Automatic annotation (TrEMBL):
<feature type="transmembrane region" description="Helical">
    <location>
        <begin position="868"/>
        <end position="890"/>
    </location>
</feature>
<dbReference type="InterPro" id="IPR015797">
    <property type="entry name" value="NUDIX_hydrolase-like_dom_sf"/>
</dbReference>
<feature type="region of interest" description="Disordered">
    <location>
        <begin position="1119"/>
        <end position="1144"/>
    </location>
</feature>
<keyword id="KW-1133">Transmembrane helix</keyword>
<dbReference type="GO" id="GO:0005886">
    <property type="term" value="C:plasma membrane"/>
</dbReference>
<keyword id="KW-0407">Ion channel</keyword>
<dbReference type="InterPro" id="IPR005821">
    <property type="entry name" value="Ion_trans_dom"/>
</dbReference>
<dbReference type="Pfam" id="PF18139">
    <property type="entry name" value="LSDAT_euk"/>
</dbReference>
<feature type="domain" description="TRPM-like">
    <location>
        <begin position="442"/>
        <end position="705"/>
    </location>
</feature>
<keyword id="KW-0472">Membrane</keyword>
<protein>
    <recommendedName>
        <fullName>Transient receptor potential cation channel subfamily M member 2</fullName>
    </recommendedName>
</protein>
<keyword id="KW-0406">Ion transport</keyword>
<keyword id="KW-0813">Transport</keyword>
<keyword id="KW-0175">Coiled coil</keyword>
<keyword id="KW-0109">Calcium transport</keyword>
<dbReference type="InterPro" id="IPR050927">
    <property type="entry name" value="TRPM"/>
</dbReference>
<dbReference type="GO" id="GO:0099604">
    <property type="term" value="F:ligand-gated calcium channel activity"/>
</dbReference>
Length: 1359
């Protein structure tokens, strides 16, 4: 079956969940020791090892005072005569500051901290956060940056920011990372966390706010230092005396204090923080590998030049940024130019904005700095997919959390993923964040077309994350449960990843462990790796919960196939035959995927998920009743967790009401078919019926439904008219007493009483003989009931069921006493004892007679009340016995000295105190009533009690006042307290049963009807003839039993079978599915037609535009303005974007060649603004650095304009550097459904590239030109493009020029086979090679995208 999967993480963890919960306090000390040991081994700090006086005496170049240096650093022999250098004279040693930090006061004041070296590996820091500090991996990483000093924000914007930040962190499980100090934007984040903690009043869902600060710039850090760690360290905010240093913010939860060995220097943490953010962004999202990584977003408030560098670096790393307009300074500068084309973001505009928003600070800025900042802002504007501006005035960004999440989705749309893969990644993010609102507005739009398979990963994540709203949304948008659970590995994986707190998982773990221990006794040990969960284990455990009367829900592999019905094809007839149950011939069983998912949710006690899955279940009545049975069983067996058990019982009642509601609707529509539904065998729930599930679950309300009772009445009365032959009817008309079983019961008791009182002779009379025959017939009937097993339970289960019935216990006891009494009666010595036993047996037979009156609506509830009160009586007798024994022993000890006669001890300790309750006051506790003649002084007379202790006057010597007080106290508690308690208990029981009289009576009525329906027709003692007949038929002739034994199968047998063959509701479902599929097919066809029409219109528009351009070139002009062909109207929302795109095309300058960071070099380019690119434009301040070029010729000048770098750079020569870019294409199939090209994934740039300048296709040759020569004879080689390439390696004196060739390959050629083998070998490698469709959605550099567009035009394909 393939459903066996490894259990994660370990069964041992599952079995130890409860023990772990109760031992957290005792593990705190050991956890601290473990943390300290780990930090000592892995985390380092930095300290100066060479003291050199700086500008101030007594202070080293590193900024620390002389007293803060170790002795070896004062005059080290290794460094004498050297100039102090931060890289050489600072070394790493084990850190001495870590542990818990406590700020005091209200709110989230206790956090964790560690002093780390600036060169610490980010992997170690992530391990510290997740494994040592026990932070769950984030679903989102929010980096908040901006102004490091206090700044003013409008109150409304401040409230929006704090509320939105906390909401996005709370709903998505995000980490927030800041600078960690109590100033600027970090203080705003801290205040947001503080407000959340104070408003929620709970620390369970605390916000993870990580502060990454510079250790040397932290004020009052001495209390944090201790070699063994501080648990906790007391840190106080001292804002008054901090000077140029900064205090830690008291509302952050975790602190990484970055140390480079210096004191008083800011910005040390920037590099390490950037590396940590990059590492976290590469971690997988969630607990299942889906290719989605943890998303990172940068939120910017206020800020200065350093913030601009942070934004620029983040966007180069493809991290989206959210700018809050109105927060001041740099944020407002970027926000004001965000909607403009790059050509309009000029140096003068930035000058004006800087002067406006920076105020007096603007005067300190140099022209070169503003040029550099303008270039960075232009580059930022050039990446609109990564830039989001939050404006309070816009209605579409009503909250900051929505803006943050939409920014991530917008960035994801422009990632390397294309098509449905891109949408799937966005959906995974929305599921991880649990933001249904974002999914509805931004993902499930009219533009997106989803197949069920596209949503399976998101559905799996939503189920494991217990996100019912997402599950419902995915079902509404096309998830087909039949396809989702079609591979039973998925269902097994769902069970494997149940939460460790799940009671059902712990039961599974125990079952697997038991099974493994059994196998280890007979098989050799296979190690711990054999621990698995399979659907067979799940089926066995569910069968235990449902009851052994059911069949396994997931049978063993190889016995027969169990699968989901396939989707019917369009040409399949509507009358689809769906098999309902597994037959003995090995036919396959069709499962209900909705029922399987519902069962998985019920076993976790997940009400909302179960509700959604129940709605998808086909057999919803059986599913609800089965859930009621399972939940009650789980609540019973998991009683140690009372709260969870109570929730399970409430959920069981909830689904019982669901079952009643569904059945009531069916009963109102068609009573006869509703009755058939009760006894229809459900293949999805263990080959059982709704009625049987309701009875086993003790669902009294369901059984009491009028439709169920109508079925029972029809079974009780209908047999007389339908099944009995005519001679039986006539016989009962002549001998009417045979009909009334109650009359026969009275006749038996009358005969029994006559024999006991009048006719009990030494030699049995004919009356006594008749009595014994009657009793023997009853014995035979009880034996038949014990061994009668139509459901195949087995003798052990049948015996348990027999004993659990109180009436059967009375039957067994009466028969046992009858056998003992008869044996004694037949002997001379024990003749009278036998009569006594039979008299007691008569009492039991009288009590047993009450069972027949349960069928009565009047007497039945009263018998139930008596039965309940008997149970209450046992509880009362237990309490009463305590008082009786307590008083009796005390009284006996005070009055009587050393009584050794057991009968008189029992009389004095138990019998006399018991009679006192009923008003029989004792006379031996009062001296006035003492009579020495009524007692025996020494206890020698057996007929008299022993006298109390006497004094010299022959009067009782006991303290009379004490015995009277004891009697009064005893009467007070026994007669008043306990008897009134008994009355109250009886009253409560009566009221409870009386309120539910009808329900309880109807439920009990079923058992009686079933019992009498399964009995032979003849009453006792004539039933003995039926027993003889059955014995001959079964044992002698070995024939199968008659049909009356399976009463639920016999009634409506023909009708039920017809229902099984043609279930109307399944036919309706099939028709509905076919109609939906036809509608979907029509919709897809319509979309395809519209797409083709749009392509034709677009081609016509381009053709007309070409005609117009040609006519204009020839000097022909029209009097009227030409209409814009193929474009949107002015009212359409995409018009600004189109105009911006057109503007960029008209004023295109190279972009990559002006990147500030030159590849493989630490020398940055001189910033070249957009308007300063052409050589014709004067740029007086232009002074680019020279890289790899001593002699620069003015003859070789970049045709694309200025680049900000002179020399050869990383290229091979000055002037043009020629490369070859072959575009290898093929048709996807023989029908030419799509044109594909060979693409290579560039991991560094995150782009698909052509196999040209960086990658070479070597097929039996070593140069690309030889490939062309080799294939030119058998393939089509066309030159597509030749010219300048906007390459990051270009300089003012050296640049790249390319020749793009299209090599179209035949799918059947040997060359194609070699290329396909090479592409297969790159799967899983960094440089992935694969055939990709020629499409504008493929993420490539600009010139290669243009080349692909031309290739598509050559092959007459739409790009």
């Amino acid at each position: 079956m393939g459903e066996s999967l490894l259990l994660e993480p370990s069964l041992a963890q599952t079995l130890a969940v409860s023990a772990t919960k109760t031992s957290k306090l005792s593990l705190s000390t050991s956890t601290q020791r473990s943390l300290a040991a780990w930090i000592k081994d892995n985390i380092r700090k930095k300290e100066c090892c060479f003291y050199v006086d700086g500008d101030s005496k007594g202070i080293c170049k590193c900024g620390y005072q002389r007293i803060h240096h170790v002795d070896d650093s004062i005059k080290p022999e290794n460094y004498l005569g050297e100039t102090w250098d931060r890289h050489r004279h600072v070394h790493e040693v084990p850190t001495d500051a870590y542990g818990d930090i406590w700020f005091g006061g209200l709110g989230q004041k206790i956090g964790k901290y560690a002093r780390v070296s600036a060169d610490t590996s980010p992997d170690l820091l992530y391990q510290l956060l997740t494994e040592q500090w026990k932070l769950p991996p984030p679903n989102l990483f929010i980096s908040v940056t901006g102004g490091a000093k206090n700044f003013y924000m409008k109150p409304h914007l401040t409230a929006l920011f704090r509320r939105g930040l906390i909401k996005v962190a709370q709903t998505t499980g995000a980490w927030i990372i800041t600078g960690g100090t109590h100033a600027g934007v970090m203080k705003h984040v801290g205040q947001a966390v503080r407000e959340y903690v104070l408003s929620s009043g709970s620390m369970e869902g605390q916000i993870v706010a990580i502060g990454v600060a510079t250790w040397g710039a932290i004020h009052n850090r001495r209390p944090l230092v201790h070699l063994e760690g501080r648990f906790p360290a007391h840190y106080s905010l001292d804002m008054q005396s901090q000077g140029h240093l900064s205090c830690l913010d008291n509302n952050h939860s975790h602190f990484l204090l970055v140390d480079d060995g210096t004191h008083g220097c800011y910005g040390v943490e920037i590099e390490l923080r950037s590396r940590l953010e990059r590492l976290i962004s590469q971690q997988p999202l969630g607990n299942r590998e889906s290719g989605v990584r943890i998303p990172v977003v940068c939120v910017v408030l206020n800020g200065g030049p350093g913030t601009l560098s942070t934004i620029y670096g983040a966007m180069l790393n493809r991290t989206p940024c959210v700018i809050l307009e109105g927060s001041g300074r740099l944020a407002d500068v970027v926000a004001h130019v965000a909607g403009l084309p790059v050509t309009k973001v000029t140096l003068s505009v930035i000058h004006q904005l800087m002067k406006r928003f920076f105020g007096p600070e603007y005067d300190s800025f140099t022209e070169l700095k503003i040029i550099e900042w303008t270039k960075k802002i232009q580059d930022i504007i050039r990446m609109p997919q990564l830039l989001t501006v939050f404006r309070m005035s816009e209605d579409n960004h009503g909250d900051v959390d929505v803006a943050i999440l939409q920014a991530l989705l917008k960035a994801n749309r422009s990632s390397e993923s294309v098509g449905m893969e891109r949408w799937e990644r966005q959906l995974e993010l929305a599921v991880a964040w649990n933001r249904v609102d974002i999914a509805k507005t931004d993902i499930f739009t009219e533009d997106s077309q989803w197949k069920s398979s596209d949503l399976h990963q998101a559905m799996f994540s939503a189920l494991l994350g217990h996100k019912p709203q997402f599950v419902r949304l995915l079902l509404e948008n096309g998830v087909c449960l039949r396809e989702f659970l079609g591979d039973q590995t998925t269902l097994c994986d769902l069970y494997t990843q149940l939460p460790t707190s799940c009671f059902f998982l712990r039961r599974l773990a125990k079952r697997i462990q038991t099974e493994k221990s059994r196998r280890s006794q007979t098989l050799s040990s296979r190690g711990a790796a054999g621990r698995t969960i399979s659907l067979t284990h799940v089926s066995d455990e569910i069968r235990h919960l449902l009851g052994s009367f059911t069949q396994p829900l997931y049978p063993l592999p190889g016995l027969h196939s169990t699968r989901y019905p396939k989707e019917p094809k369009e040409d399949v007839a509507v009358t689809v035959s769906i098999k309902l149950c597994q037959t003995a011939s090995g036919e396959e069983t069709f499962r209900d995927p909705g029922g399987d998912l519902f069962l998985w949710a019920i076993l976790q006690n997940q009400k909302e998920l179960a509700e959604i899955a129940w709605e998808q279940s086909r057999d919803c009545t059986s599913a609800a009743l089965a859930a009621s049975k399972i939940l009650k069983k789980l609540a019973e067996e998991g009683a140690e967790e009372e709260d969870e058990a109570e929730e399970m019982r409430e959920l069981a009642k909830h689904y019982e009401r669901h079952a009643i509601g569904v059945f009531n609707e069916c009963h109102c529509c068609d009573e006869e078919r509703a009755q058939r539904l009760l006894i229809r065998i459900s293949s999805s729930w263990g080959q059982t019926t709704c009625l049987r599930l309701a009875l086993e679950a003790d669902d009294k309300s369901f059984v009491a439904h009028s439709g169920v009772q109508a079925l029972l009445t029809q079974i009780w009365c209908g047999e007389l008219a339908a099944d009995n032959p005519l001679w039986r009817v006539l016989l009962c008309m002549l001998f009417f007493p045979l009909i009334y079983t109650g009359f026969l019961g009275f006749s038996f008791l009358l005969l029994f009483s006559v024999v006991l009182m009048i006719d009990f002779q030494t030699t049995p009379s004919w009356r006594e003989g008749l009595l014994y025959v009657w009793l023997i017939s009853l014995v035979c009937e009880e034996v038949r009931q014990l061994f009668h097993d139509p459901d195949g339970f087995g003798f052990r289960k049948k015996a348990d069921m027999y004993i659990n019935d109180m009436w059967n216990i009375l039957d067994f006891l009466s028969i046992l006493l009858f056998i003992i009494g008869l044996a004694f009666r037949l002997t001379t010595r024990l003749f009278y004892a036998g009569k006594v036993i039979l008299c007691i047996d008569f009492i039991i037979f009288c009590l047993r007679l009450m069972a027949i009156f349960i069928i009565s609506k009047t007497l039945g509830p009263k018998i139930i009340i008596v039965r309940r009160m008997m149970l209450d009586m046992f509880f009362f007798m237990f309490l009463l016995s305590i008082w009786v024994v307590a008083y009796g022993v005390a009284k006996q000890g005070i009055l009587i000295h050393n009584e050794d006669r057991l009968d008189w001890i029992v009389r004095g300790v138990i019998y006399e105190p018991y009679l006192i309750i009923f008003g029989n006051m004792p006379s031996n506790i009062d001296n006035a009533l003492f009579d020495i003649k009524a007692c025996s002084v020494n206890g020698t007379e057996s007929q008299k009690p022993k006298c109390p202790i006497l004094n010299e006057d022959k009067m009782p010597a006991f303290p009379e006042w004490l015995t009277i007080i004891l009697l009064c106290v005893y009467l007070l508690f026994a007669n008043i307290l306990l008897l009134n308690l008994l009355i109250a208990i009886f009253n409560y029981t009566f009221q409870e049963v009386q309120d539910n009289t009808d329900t309880i009576w109807k439920f009990q009525r079923y058992e009686l009807i079933k019992e009498y329906h399964s009995r032979p027709a003849a009453p006792p003692p004539l039933i003995l003839l039926s027993h003889i007949f059955l014995f001959i038929r079964r044992i002698v002739l070995q024939r199968p039993p008659n049909s009356y034994r399976s009463w639920t199968k016999s009634h409506f047998q023909d009708k039920a079978s017809s229902v099984s063959r043609k279930p109307a509701f399944k036919l309706v479902c099939t028709i509905t599915e076919l109609l939906q599929r036809e509608e979907a097919t029509g919709s897809v066809a319509l979309v395809k037609r519209l797409t083709r029409l749009e392509e034709q219109v677009s081609q016509s528009a381009r053709a007309l535009q070409w005609i117009m351009d040609t006519l204009k070139a020839q000097g022909l002009h029209s009097k009227e303005e030409a209409p814009q062909l193929g474009e949107r109207s002015e009212s359409e929302p995409n018009e600004p974007h189109r105009q911006e795109k057109t503007e960029r095309e008209k004023t295109f300058y190279h972009v990559n060649a002006r990147r500030l960071d030159y590849p493989d070099s630490t020398v940055p380019r001189f910033p070249v603004l957009e308007e300063k690119v052409p050589w014709e434009v004067d740029f007086i301040l232009y002074n680019p650095p020279v890289l790899n070029g001593d002699i620069i010729s003015n003859v070789c000048r970049n045709p694309g304009g200025r680049t900000g770098m002179k020399g050869r750079g990383a290229l091979t020569c000055l002037g043009p550097n020629l490369i070859l870019d072959p575009v290898l294409t093929r048709w996807r199939d023989s029908e030419r459904s799509a044109l594909e090209f060979l693409a290579v994934w560039d991991q560094e740039d995150g782009l698909w590239t052509l196999p040209g300048r960086k990658h070479y296709i070597l097929v039996n040759t070593s140069a690309g030109i030889l490939v062309i020569a080799e294939v030119s004879c058998c393939t089509c080689v066309l030159q597509v493009h030749e010219g300048y390439v906007d390459d990051v390696r270009n300089t003012d004196d050296a640049w790249v020029e390319t020749t793009v060739l299209n090599i179209h390959l035949d799918r059947r050629s040997l060359l194609m086979a070699d290329i396909n083998r090479m592409a297969e070998n790159t799967v899983g490698c960094v440089e992935l090679v694969r055939w990709t469709e020629v499409s504008s959605r493929t993420r490539m550099c600009s010139y290669q995208r243009d080349a692909l567009r031309r290739v598509a035009e050559l092959h007459q394909r739409t790009f």
